Each structure stands twice: as structure tokens, then as C-alpha cells.
Amino acid sequence: MRSPVVFLAMIAALAASPLAAREAVREVAVMTADPDGPGSERFLGDRAPVPEAPIPQGALIPQGIARYGPFRVLDAGHAALVDVTDSASPARFAAMLRDFPGIGEIAMIDCPGTEDDLANLTIGRMIRARGLATRVPAGGSVRSGAVELFLAGARRYAEPGAEFAVHAWMDDTGHEASDYAESDPANAKYLAYYRQMGMSPIEARAFYAMTNSAPFASARWFGAGVMAMWVRLDDRPAG
Questions:
Q1: Is 37:2 a contact under the CB 8 Å cutoff?
Q2: pTM of the predicted structure, to 2 decimals
Q3: Which CATH number does the domain 5-230 belong to among 3.90.226, 3.30.70, 2.60.450, 3.40.50?
Q4: What confidence tens digit (pLDDT) does each residue in 130-150 have?
């Protein structure tokens, strides 16, 4: 079993404005571990400017009417994700859906990623099986392992001003995804997941390659327009 790798990395984000240029270098907590085993951590702990468009300072984090770990119930039909997922999150997510069976949408407000990759993928499959929609509001931030949860939505909405971030994983030997064969379980589980989320084999490989195009010590940041080039985004219903 490869042990967790934890360190702080400095990333330089492309600037879209003078303000963004002054904020271009951010200290980002990047945490990961063996992407093949339980307890893997993969999240980005800070935010960066997105070159596609100016980004609001962040969506307001709602208090909600009930909390289930990183999930908050907003009302009978809506919940929000506001923190990292972990090994306890699938059970908490299931409990939320049991107590509030009318929930049909997950708003992704501030989502750094996950402390347990396998548990995170389990939640994604639960989202898809339940037919829930995922939505990133203006100022919402979906990073690292949380991107898999956004992809899980039966319908996906990303408002202008939403941001996403992806990066490669790395094990404690210094190897990243590209150092392993595509058929290696460490890579194959992501390709299988993307196919379960509706991608063709070609689309799954292309999207996974894109996520790994930013090395572990960095991150690739982009907005809703770029995400729409990779996966289908739905139009928000009127009214």
C-alpha cells in the first residue's frame, strides 16, 4: 500500500485582470495518496483566478436546515455540498436522502475534493443512481475529487462564474497517473467511473488525460465554458 503524500505547492494561475495578476500565485494544499486504496486524499485547499472570466469572491455558504457531514439540506428539494467528502460521507449522504427523499439537486458551493477517493466515487454513483442534478452557482468552486461528483449529476448546471480545478494524482514514489498503464487499477477505476457517468470510452480517456495534464504540484483552473467543451451541461429551467 502506498502511503499518503501531503505537501504545499505553489501554483501560478493565468491572470484575466490586474487584480487577478496580483493574486496569480497561490499557496494550495494538495493532498493525495494511493488512488487505488481506501483512504486516498485528493483535494485543493485554496482557490485561484480563472482566466476564462472574472470570478466572484465566492458563493455564500448556506446554513441550511440540517447537516449531514459536508452536505447541508437547504429545503425539501435541495441540498448543498460545502466541504470535503470522507469515508463517512456515503452513509451520511444516504441518511440525508432517507430523511429528505424529495431532494433532487445538489448545489456545489465550496468543494475542495475528498479525503477518501473510493468513498467519493461511491457518492457519485449514488447521485447518478438517484437521478439527482448537480449545480455550481456563480462563485461556486468545484476542485479536484469534487469534479467527479459534479460529473455524476443526471443533469448538470454550471452558472457563469462557476469554477473548476483538476490536477494529476501522485503516489509516494513520485509517480503520477501517466507513469502507469491505462489498464492499471489506479487509472482504470477512473475510466470506468467516467463511463458510468455517461462518457464513451474515447471521451473518458480524453477527459482523464485532461485532468492529468496539470501535474500534481499544480492545478488546471477553468470555468463553465471550458467544462461545457468536455461534458454536456444542461440549460437551467426557466422560472
A1: yes
A2: 0.78
A3: 3.90.226
A4: 999 999 999 999 999 999 999
